[in-house]
Amino acid sequence: MQQLQEINYQDARVLTTKQLSAAFDTTDKTVTRNFQRNNERYEIGKHYFALTGEDLKQFKATRQDDATLKFVSTLYLWTEHGAWLHAKSLNNDRAWEAYRMLIDNYYSIAKRHSVLRGPDNMGHALSEQVIYQIESRLDALEEQIKQVTLPAREQKRLRNAVGERVYQLTRKEPGARPALFRALHRSIRERYDVESYRDVKRHQLLDALNFVANWGGEAIETRSKANSG
């Protein structure tokens, strides 16, 4: 990884999109696209800063030698938390290794400097560092929990709910059951972007059960594909 030019904003060590994409060996477009796809996970001030107007003008004034900023109308600056989410979006060995190097050689240096400012500030700096580390670990734990899929017992619960709903909808049309089983499983896969109902995330279980309970059968799968042709 090339030596990164240090950028600090609002007492936080940050990276531009170009710096972040270079560190992760990807493109600016990929970083931007991943952010747009998952922007509900990003919190301004925590994961990133978005500079426009006078804030951007002042920032550019401090970096007049950076030609890449000349035509930028909105500048994104990524914190350690934001870099973690980008590494998670890329989710490959190279990205995670780059993230670890950023933590060791870029982001954490700013924290160490804050601790070494002097005895008057040391207690405060240490407290901030501990809080920041705890928050980072909690964020990481929260993201890990969100990726946990259904255990066997809850898979069975969802599978039984599918069966109950299909039987409710086909009391008068039992011949349509195979088509409805396929249709409902397809709807679950599409709704949660998974290959199987087994891959539904555990935190999505209640939503999935509610979805199944209210699934309409899509007009009994268009009258069982027009009575099978």
Automatic annotation (TrEMBL):
<dbReference type="Pfam" id="PF10552">
    <property type="entry name" value="ORF6C"/>
</dbReference>
<feature type="domain" description="KilA-N DNA-binding">
    <location>
        <begin position="7"/>
        <end position="89"/>
    </location>
</feature>
<protein>
    <submittedName>
        <fullName>ORF6C domain-containing protein</fullName>
    </submittedName>
</protein>
<dbReference type="InterPro" id="IPR018873">
    <property type="entry name" value="KilA-N_DNA-bd_domain"/>
</dbReference>
<feature type="domain" description="ORF6C">
    <location>
        <begin position="128"/>
        <end position="215"/>
    </location>
</feature>
<dbReference type="Pfam" id="PF10543">
    <property type="entry name" value="ORF6N"/>
</dbReference>
<dbReference type="InterPro" id="IPR018878">
    <property type="entry name" value="ORF6C_dom"/>
</dbReference>
